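Example record used in the benchmark description.
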Amino acid sequence: MTIATQPQTAPSEKATEHPHIARVNDVPVLRGSRIPVRLVAQMYRAGDSVEDILLSYPHLAATAIHDALSYYLDHHDEIEQEIVAHRVENVIKDTGAQMDERGFVSFKKPNNG
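Model output (structure tokens):
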């Protein structure tokens, strides 16, 4: 039996007031990279400089990192809520996963009854 599948289409980007930031599935990301603004904000809050962030993501331009930080400052509450929602303890709780004493996360196998 042959199963036909629909071709996968990339999620569409919605422009924001920031030239290097788009919304994809309602998440603000660096345009064309799918790197969420929250990740750049977390790195910056942890003490990383723009240059440090560029070392981690050399394919990005400094202007994009600066724009992500500007977006973070303009949308502080929204990005802070995303950061909290993506903390490991919240993701584990929301997905029903378990973390062992070594920090390994496991997920229950879905029932394909």
